[in-house]
Design goal:
Layout (H helix, E strand, L loop, with lengths): L2 H18 L14 E6 L9 H15 L3 E6 L6 H10 L4 E5 L4 H10 L4 E5 L4 E2 L2 E2 L16 E6 L1 H15 L4 E6 L4 H17 L4 E6 L6 H13 L4 E5 L1 H14 L2 E6 L2 H4 L7 E7 L1 H13 L6 E5 L6 E3 L11 H16 L8
Parallel strand pairs: 1-2, 1-3, 3-4, 4-7, 5-6, 7-13, 8-9, 8-10, 10-11, 11-12
Antiparallel strand pairs: 12-14
């Protein structure tokens, strides 16, 4: 618990004692409000993806529970450490950082500020990757991250479903993904996508390209166009605005597209007519739940994984394609979902 959470319990004990002793109780000091802050990554505050939805979920729950709330938008990755420090200096009790690339900055801040709780979206700490390779658990006292919660998602699971859908819908037998940085969450999506496609059609041809930037739609579009020239007729955009460039290439070519992270039918309406679904992570629910649990003294250190089974990831509705997607494809997706819930290792991404 934070100091403010302990204060509430202490106040109740003191008042009870004074009442029992017949003392006069003056008006109690108002309990200080818990403060919640979010540090956004450097892509874009309104990125229609991780930043926007993490902020939305955390802010809505904070306001609902009467907590103080603030956020900082980062101009560049070099600002991450300083922006975290700004929220620490302002007295925030819970600080949420958005994205894998916040790993080092978040861990350093957590070690220096044990009375502040941190939640990081999309980065899990393992020995040798975020803490010493001589420890068994980074979230232990020995590992030094007892005040960090990692909000993680089973990208491989929902990516697998996207691959099954893409392979079933493809008329050319060739599909592709336009991906952002080669980091674990993106790799999970792509691995699941390719393995799901091959499970449905062992002869499917799959292309993928990682682009070392999440905010480069022009390059994403060029890569998408290149894959389309090689007969890919379904494009999976996996990487923020960079992936959106691949979706736009599909739209302009009249081919099918699959979005990522959120239901892009609503966040990227320019490609609605070709968007058959999105591999969705319910980031807003994850960040909101973290705020709620923290306020209730229930947010523990360690990894909180959102899965198909928990409802934390899943394919978005088919929307305009509901009547265009054959029943056998819908059945194949449902069968794959049931199989993953029974044994999540089939995705090949664990």
């Amino acid at each position: 618990m934070s100091n403010k959470q302990h204060f509430h319990v202490f106040l109740i004990v003191v008042l009870s004692f004074l009442t029992a002793c017949g003392g006069t109780v003056s008006e109690p000091t108002p309990e200080p409000k818990l403060k919640v802050g979010v540090v956004l990554n450097s892509v874009n505050e309104n990125d229609k993806s991780f930043n926007e939805y993490t902020l939305k979920g955390a802010q809505e729950v904070a306001e609902e529970m009467g907590l103080e709330f603030t956020y900082v938008a980062s101009a560049a990755a070099e600002d991450y450490g300083q922006n975290i420090q700004t929220l620490i200096t302002e007295g925030n009790d819970l600080i949420i950082t958005v994205g894998f690339l916040f790993g080092d900055a978040t861990a350093k801040a957590a070690r220096k500020n044990p009375n502040v709780h941190f939640a990081i979206v999309g980065n899990a700490y393992f020995p040798g990757f975020g803490c010493a390779d001589t420890v068994s658990d980074c979230y232990s006292v020995e590992g030094g991250l007892t005040n960090v919660t990692s909000l993680m998602f089973a990208e491989d699971e929902v990516g697998y479903l996207a691959g099954v859908l893409a392979a079933c819908m493809s008329e050319t037998g060739t599909i592709a993904s336009v991906a952002g940085m080669e980091i674990p969450p993106v790799i999970g999506f792509v691995t699941g996508y390719q393995n799901g496609a091959k499970q449905f059609n062992p002869d499917i041809v799959t292309f993928n390209k990682h682009i070392p930037d999440f905010d480069d739609p022009d390059t994403g579009k060029v890569i998408g166009q290149d894959f389309i020239s090689q007969n890919a007729d379904v494009i999976f955009g996996v990487g923020g605005n960079t992936g959106n460039g691949g979706l736009l290439a599909a739209k302009e070519a009249g081919h099918m597209a699959i979005g990522v992270d959120v239901d892009q039918y609503f966040t990227y309406p320019e490609v609605r007519e070709v968007l058959i679904s999105s591999a969705s992570k319910k980031v807003d629910i994850a960040s909101g739940n973290a705020v709620r649990k923290f306020a209730n003294g229930e947010l523990n250190a360690g990894i909180e994984l959102a899965t198909l089974k928990s409802g934390g990831v899943g394919l978005a509705p088919y929307h305009d394609w509901e009547d265009k997607i054959p029943q056998n494809c819908k059945d194949a997706v449902k069968s794959a979902e049931d199989a993953i819930i029974a044994d999540s290792t089939i995705t090949g991404g664990k």
